[in-house]
Structures are given as C-alpha cells and as structure tokens.
Amino acid sequence: MSANTKKPVLIIGGAGLTGSQAARTLRRLQPELPITIGGRDIAKAQSLARELGGADSVKIDLERPDLGLPEGMAFSAVVVFVKDDTLHSMKYAQAKGIPYLSISTGAFELGPEVALYIHKPSSAPILMASHWLAGTATLPTLYFAREFQRIEAIEIGAVLDEQDIGGPAAQADFERQANATPNAMILVDGKWRWVGPEEAARTFKGVDGTEIQARAYSLFDGLSLAAATDARSVRCDFALRQSANHRPGEPFSTEFIIEIVGQLRDGRTARVRHELVHPGGQAPMTALGVAVGVERLLGLAGGPPVAPGLYLPESVIDPAYMVQRLKEFGAQFRRV
User: Which of 72, 188, 308, 314 is deepest in the core (most CB within 10 A)?
Assistant: First the structure.
C-alpha cells in the first residue's frame, strides 16, 4: 500500500443499509485498507467498525464545512451515501486534495458539483457515480457493446423489487428525484429530449417473460452510454414491482435487461439482449460499484492512483473488471 492508502477511507452514511454493505465489500476487496464509518448514529457506526476490523467511527455533521471532524484527522478518500445539499463533503475532499465519490445526484441536479469542480479543477479526483446502482448497469453495458462496431440504440430496463427500495437515504433520493421533475431525459435519434409521461413510458419483457411497464429515469447512465458509444438513441427505464425471483419466503432480486442495436463486428445488423440478475437485490450491486470505484481512485486496482479531474465510472474503470467482480459477488449473466 502507498503512504496515502494507510489513511482511512471516510464513508459518510457508512452505517446505513447500502453504505454498510459497501464497507463490507471494500473490506473484502482490500483487507488491509483502513476505513472510517461516518454518520449521525455513532453507536451504529461503532458497531460496524468493530465488525469490520481495521476501522473506526466518527460522527458527521454535514452542516459544518469541517464536517464536524476533529482537527488533525486525515483520510485517503471521501465516499458519500447521502445527498449532501451543502456539498461540504466535496469541498472538504478538495481542500484535502483527496478523491471524492458520490452516488446520489440526479442528472438534472449535477450543476453545483460540476461548478465546484470547475473552480478547483486541480484539487482532487471527483468520481460522479450517480448511475443506477453506482455504475453496475452502465459498465456491463459497455462491456457488451464491445461486440459491435457501430451502435444505433441502447435500452436498459431496470427492475427493483418493491420491497427493496433501500434505507432512509435511498428512499429520500428516490422520492426527491421522482418528484423534482415530471419529465425524463433520453437521447432520441441523436437529440437529447426531456419527455413527458407518454413518451417516458415503455414496456419490455422481464427475465421471466412477463411484460413490464416502466418509465424513463434520469440518472447518469444515459449520459455515460451516449458519450462512450456515440449511439444515436439511449434510454434507461425503471420499474418498481415484485421481482421475478421473489416468492413468499424467498429473497428478492434486482434485474437489468440490456438491449443493444447496431452493426456487429462481422458486419451483420443485430439486436442483442443481455440479462443481468443479482439474487441479493440492489444493495450488493451498489456496494460493489462503490467499492470498485474507491479501489480504482486509490490505485489499488486497475492502474495508478487517479489524478485530479472530473470522472464518470467508465472513464477510470475497465468494464471487463466490473463484470468479473460482479460475477464473483453473485451476479448472474445471460445473453439472449
């Protein structure tokens, strides 16, 4: 480990439902990496720190520019699992010159973070991972896209079990983003459009063959996929319903239906469908997306530490590496 990674990664919201899974996942990927669990409930944070080993806990106050942290504390990175309306957490990371990773910003509200980066572009690496489950849909999609020489359209259908919406922070994110704008942003025939309820609606076939009614959702996935593939049409749709594998007494799953239309490398035109299912639901997917982002930022996997800059997951993480890790952590893939 480098001298910098001997300092702990500060996980704000790390004692929550998904944050705690991310901390456990990061510990599994990087057994020697110190971790600090930050939150408002110090008892929960302390309990998780004891479970992890090589970890400690701290109370966080996002209303304060210093986050309420004791003077002299030092970290290797800051990871945020809650919506920080003050952006004090990002400013703190910039002031310390350490990586920052966030996952709770909608596509319609990325302006403040981008502006803060523009004013201090050389201060720290900023990884904007506010994609569906922290990039674990987008990165596999880019991996599947490699069999195409030209892509016309990408459609992702995400199914979240109605009992798997997550903890309080995740529910707050969902409600804020659903209520903040009545329209959704999609790419249609080369043009970005904000579409109303009628055009935002789409039906796709689930992994069990049932027809699923979904609605376009404005996270960062569409932005990443359009920029990375030059596809002329991109949309990401979301459905909240009972997942295909969820039966009484059985766990719920999270499902991605990924469909790509274009010209294959052998010259044929095709529509290829991939199904990605995790039987443990959304939390392990999000946790892995964040953990892989942290280890990449710190140079613990995939290359040297990431230099100061503004990044999306696909600009620093190899899609093949994410697919490999997803399989190791229980995700199931099927190409149709």
Answer: 314
- For residues 128, 227, 295, 93, the Cα torsion angle rounded to the nearest 10 degrees is -30
| CATH entry, 134-281, from 3.40.50.720, 3.50.50.60, 3.20.20.70, 3.30.360.10 | 3.30.360.10
pTM above 0.90, yes or no: yes
List the domain boundaries for the chain: 4-133+284-317, 134-281
pLDDT tens-place string over residues 271-290: 999 999 999 999 999 999 99
pLDDT at position 39 is 93
Mean pLDDT to the nearest integer, 249-262: 88
Condensed to tens digits (0 to 9), the pLDDT of residues 7-22 reads 999 999 999 999 999 9
Tell me how far the alpha carbon of residue 51 is from its chain's centroid. 25
Rounded distance, CA 50 to CA 57, Å? 9
Whether the predicted pLDDT of 3 surpasses 60:
no
Backbone dihedral angles phi then psi of residue 212, each to the nearest 5 degrees: -115, 130
Per CATH, domain 4-133+284-317 is 3.40.50.720: yes
Q: Which of 3-7, 71-75, 134-138, 165-169 has the highest mean pLDDT?
A: 134-138
pLDDT, average across residues 227-245: 89
Same-fold call for 4-133+284-317 versus 134-281: no
Please spell the DSSP secondary structure of 4-34, one letter per residue. Answer: GGGSPEEEETTTSHHHHHHHHHHHHH-TT--
Tokens representing 150 are 């030209």
b/e map of 318-327 (b: 16 or more CB within 10 Å)? bbebbbebbe
Tokens coding 60:
């966080």
CA 139 to mean position of chain CA atoms: 10
Helix (H) or strand (E) holding 335: strand 332-335
